[in-house]
Sequence to fold (305 residues):
Amino acid sequence: MMEKNQLEQYVTVVEAGSISKAAKILYLAQPNLSKTIQMMEEEMGQKLLLRSHRGVETTPLGKELYYHAKNILERFGMIDEWKTMHQKTLPCYLNVSISSLFLDKRILQEFSRQTQSMETFIQLHETTPKSVLEDLVNGQAELGIVILNDQILPAFQKIAEAKEIHVEVIDRKPYCLHYHRHYHLEKDLSQDLRFLNHYIWIHFPLDFFGYLNASLSQYGFMIQVSQKRIVSNNYHAMIQMLCFLDAFIFGNIWQKEEFARTNIASIPLSYIHIQQNFIILTKKREALSHAGSLYLKILKEIYQL
Fold:
């Protein structure tokens, strides 16, 4: 049975009057196009084209096939137009569960621009690494994004494997300290982390993995023993507090660009040998929806992953 692409190639050959010209129009190798015509002739049991040094002409059967092919391709075009219009009327749903990352706002802007739907419903759940796994298992999210350090990644991978969640590590970078520029913490960061005890530590709620992720030591200093802390699950509230308090966020380098727009400085802690991993989580036995695939593609482009 002839396929759509064969009919398209045949129509192009007839209208171009030459296989070589049609090959250039279709960006195909001439031998491949000639083989397609030959296969069609074998299927029909008769010649469709008469070849000469001037080009090609249709046989009576070839001429009849040309008109039928044109009609069929026009109907395919109508179906494609209908499909596009139908997609635009269907709402787009996307649920993403995120831990330890403030997403760059350009991701949502670009996603909104590229999606064809007239209505788009996006739910971003900012939570703990454990809850990200649970959201995927329970069907409350189709895509998970977590940031975990080298030490706890193996344990997290084993738990995810047991829950049939695919773990994809797409980048690995140093820890990063975020603070308001007018505090000039970079003067002290090159020496020791213990001075952070005098500042407020702002962070998301921590589960087992979250505590381990923040449990780094240098010269005996543990981040958790900071004298004062503020816990918030709201990105905008954390940004506001960071701008008006003598505080810091112990985070990652991927949110550096987003923070820079709010006058927040970000300093990589390259002398800490443990690094952070940018991880994408998906269900093993389920393919991403079109919205999920588009969101993931844009995310990788924005972060250059």
